[in-house]
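Let us work through a complete example step by step.
Step 1: write down the sequence.
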Amino acid sequence: MQSHNALEYDYTVAKMFTVAAIVLGIVGMTIGVLLAFQLAYPELNYLLGEYGTFSRLRPLHTDAVAFGFTLSGIWASWYYFGQRILKVSMAESPFLMFIGKLHFWLYIVGVAAVVVTLFMGITTSKEYAEFEWPIDIAIVVVWVIFGISLFGLIGIRREKYLYISMWYMIAFYVAVAMLYLFNNMAVPTYFASGGVGAWYHSVSMYAGTNDAMVQWWYGHNAVAFVFTTPIIAMIYYFLPKESGQPVYSYKLSLLAFWGLMFVYLWAGGHHLIYSTVPDWVQTMGSIFSVVLILPSWGSAINMLLTMKGEWGQLQTNPLIKFMVLASTFYMFSTLEGPIQAIKSVNALAHFTDWIPGHVHDGTLGWVGFMVIAALFHMTPRMAKREIYSKKLMESQFWIQTTGIVLYFSSMWIAGITQGMMWRATDQFGNLAYSFIDTVTVLHPYYTIRGVGGLLYLIGVFMWAYNIYMTFKAGRVLEREPQNATPMA
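Step 2: predict the structure and record it as tokens.
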């Protein structure tokens, strides 16, 4: 049998998903920047007629970033590090190679269907679950195929022990499958509008308060098992590989893993505080959200302590900068979320711009930086070329970091301002401000948010250009680098 030291890993599918991550990142974040400026300058809603309005574009933005950019980055990483962790090449199994390519192309067809239907305004109106039932079925098929790839590669592995990254990938697969199936249970209907029947229309199998509880059990855990679990899998692989340092504590990684699995699933009720759901559900959501700080920080501290004694690498390797700051943003975001879930804080924060501020310091700082870093690490090893420009990478890091800080700081200020103005009363107990007063005062913060998003998007274009030029013009490497990514 072939020695794993002499294995030639096959990166065909990893490269395909790398391209998808870059393209969908550009599309999703360009739409996001337009939406940010639409809030500051409402006349921008009419650039593309009804198809350019906030209501049409907003679900496209969230889905393109969450299920386009992020999932593609996760899958590109899986098809790269899965082979390496398990000491087996996809080229050894023509069946798994076929499954990987089928996974990619069916996913792309699903993406196209999502884009077309959301542009047309065909939606279930459920957050992160806007797709109608025919697309839901297609997504289930894609997920099953991904499962065959995941467990198929595990099944033919040479490495006896499953590294912690594999634990997180398996949890990602199982949890998303369960969440997606239960939340998207629907009854197809024939909806007639203006004499035209819509065969694809459906109504949720749940009603009222039950629908809300199931939706936010899914919605919050879509964040848990798409934006968190597989991203942790990625950093547990890429940070030790890039730094040449072993993971600080394997025991801590396991404790954090099981803590995350047991606690995260119960935290979704914090989206429904002061609503019609039972009070005990709201309280449980708050309590489990606060408890969630422990496993979240367990993972983040483990990542940061992996760099113990090697902090000098921050000065020389921009990829370490991306990954260390990603871990730091993970810590910030997983402290901020539980604080917002405390009932007294939620009374001020709910429905304000502090909430999207929290979401974006997590997605841009933690998820975005980690996907960017992972693909930067993979590219020289897939292309067998040096990264085209280290200076461009450094510039990208600082431009995007500035963008994130502008984004979340403006939204913190805007959100707390909103909350205080909404609850302010005069000496007679009447509301002190009208709704339009709050809209007017937020204009400068919305403009700053748009500028922050634009800076981050510029960084994404720099990332795309650097990777493209690496494949096209990077200096050819004689052998694969072991640790730090080679950069021109």
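Step 3: interpret the result. The longest helix spans residues 208-243.
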